[in-house]
């Protein structure tokens, strides 16, 4: 019996012009997000490759010993994966590059929110943001009256009098609404899975990405249909579901982030640098002060190369480093 109920829900949804318009809007937004994500991915990968090549060429064109090369430094970039097309994560806030230089502790840089207040205000349009915020809204508008409308129209008791159980009714509504949502998001999920076959990213990760969102939509569908079953009117059901969406998708993340910031505040860069300097000069895990570590290192190198002393004033040229390798390190 639940299959008959599910089929009825599917037919009713596709005969509803409002749902068709909502489906076209979601398809359009997902298409724009996929195209924009693909373009951003290609641009970011090109920029990182060009920057990495430039740094390597600059270092290779100049004759440097290891000590001066360490002070010259370089940049490291966060690796890009195929899933960055659909979910940029926190890169826009934490940055994507890190400068490596001897004796210095740098911070992550190139966070796009520093140069764009639009990202801070509205967030970045991506497949993940559409899946997390807009698709649940479609589920709510699709399911809020699935059971309550039967009660208001007087067909609820008729269905029960004909032998239909409450379990079959509820699961039929859930199955029908979930299939409708799958039809809406199927083109995007198919694109993600097919592209995952031709990317360097593990196909397991891509599959987990898709499965996680399918489970997320199922939870919203079950919650919406059950709310419609509990509420006596469709208006009450819609109000409850919209309130739940506001709480779980908009208000709760901000409150959680605010509580985390107040309970576990991040250190300033100045405080962090002071702690790094303190550990550098005083040691970590009882490994001794800077002077003690230096003497221990010198003794180890002297013993390794079977030499008795270090000439600190006449440094050996780089071409003679095999004879006096320690001179290059001082």
TrEMBL record:
Entry GO MF terms: ABC-type transporter activity
Segments passing through the bilayer: 12-38, 125-147, 168-194, 206-231, 238-260
Keyword set, alphabetical order: Membrane, Transmembrane, Transmembrane helix
Family matches, as Pfam families: ABC2_membrane_2 (PF12679)
Gene Ontology annotations for the cellular component aspect, listed alphabetically: plasma membrane
PANTHER family xref list: ABC TRANSPORTER PERMEASE, ABC TRANSPORTER PERMEASE PROTEIN NOSY-RELATED
Protein name as annotated: ABC transporter permease
Lineage start: Bacteria, Pseudomonadati, Bacteroidota, Sphingobacteriia, Sphingobacteriales
